[in-house]
């Protein structure tokens, strides 16, 4: 019998079971309604994210180009990503994961500009 292990993702500022991951409608109006989001999909091999720096360059350059304040600094995101990988290392995955990293607009006023403290971070495994 195949044992199914819990897969962990990341929602805004905490790790959650992937089954519980959600994008809140009202707390993330600019992301949900206005499509103010950027993302990248990362692959791991042997427990390491392939071309991590390229993914981070793409995220942070895209955020800058649309005047989005990232949810955290680049180095902090690298730490959170590595913890996410570590939490999901399971023999059945052979160190291989697909991680969707999303910066989502967050709170919005009556304009197309972001308000509040910055984008929200979601990472789905």
From TrEMBL:
GO terms for molecular function: transaminase activity. SUPFAM superfamilies: D-aminoacid aminotransferase-like PLP-dependent enzymes. It holds the Pfam family Aminotran_4. It comes from Desulfomonile tiedjei. It comes from the Bacteria. The keyword Lipid metabolism does not apply. The keyword Transferase applies. Keywords: Aminotransferase, Transferase. This is Aminotransferase class IV. InterPro entries: Aminotrans_IV, Aminotransferase-like, BCAT-like_N.
């Amino acid at each position: 019998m195949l044992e199914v292990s819990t897969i962990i993702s990341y929602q805004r500022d905490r790790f959650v079971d992937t089954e519980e991951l959600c994008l809140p409608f009202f707390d993330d109006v600019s992301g949900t309604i206005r499509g103010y989001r950027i993302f990248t999909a990362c692959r791991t091999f042997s427990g390491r994210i392939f071309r991590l720096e390229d993914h981070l360059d793409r995220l942070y350059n895209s955020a800058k180009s649309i005047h989005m304040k990232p949810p955290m600094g680049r180095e902090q995101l690298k730490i959170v990503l590595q913890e996410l990988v570590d939490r999901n290392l399971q023999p059945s995955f052979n160190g291989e994961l697909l991680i969707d990293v999303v910066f989502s607009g967050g709170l919005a006023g009556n304009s197309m500009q972001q308000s509040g403290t910055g984008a929200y971070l979601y990472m789905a495994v």
